[in-house]
Amino acid sequence: MPSVDTSSIGAQPMASGMRGDFQRARIGQNITVNHPQRGPITGKILGTIRYTELWQRVKSPSEPWVPTGNQFTAHWLGNFMIYEWKESLWLLDEYDALTDKDIATHFAPYAKRFGESNETADVYFAFPPASWKMTDIGKFSVQSAEGSGLRLNVGATGRFIHASGDGGRTLVVEDYQSGSGGQDTAWIGYSITWDAIQKIS
Asked: Which of 19, 93, 184, 190 lies 20 to 30 Å (CA to CA) from residue 32?
């Protein structure tokens, strides 16, 4: 797994501006976002997830995974999800349930190669409908999950894969540990900026 900048370990400061508004948004509020292909779309927040980033102090099977102190928010709006992670923001409007076989076939070998390079190698892989370049891997837990339509439960833990494609396309894979309470999922959408969120009301 990748190394973590230990200078960033600890509680993260409260975000300001639109990012802060996004993190504080609540179920029932509306978000208007500029979709890269469809233009402005509005959805009501039906569910909110808060993910906690995990890391190992030493790469070892016996080393526990502990929180870095970084927490990220995703809002489910019925037909799409807006998902922040580190400095990235994604508008995800397609998703497919995955099986363990899907993970082993389509993703695990490439994630292993990427991890063994300390996330420096250019690793490309195919997953319909596109070819993707791996950009980040790691592990997370679900700190909170409120509302309806979510495919996970509080306390679920899993590994993630983030990848980029042509035209600003993005792929987010969530691979939950067996029995932890999450549905393995491949999300596909677009990389956006905070400026793309036009209104939260």
From this structure: 184
Name the phi and psi angles at 111, rounded to 5: -65, -40
Query: Three-state DSSP class for 182?
Result: strand
> What tokens were used for 24?
């504080």
Kindly report the pTM of this predicted structure. 0.90
Any alpha helices (H) in 29-186, and if so which ranges?
Answer: 100-102, 108-116
- Which three-class secondary structure state does DSSP give residue 168? helix
CB atoms within 10 A of CB 167: 10
CA distance 137 to 112: 9
Locus of tokens 């491949």: 186
Give the model confidence (pLDDT) of 30-69 as tens digits. 999 999 999 999 999 999 999 999 999 888 888 999 999 9
Contact 121, 114 (CB under 8 A): yes
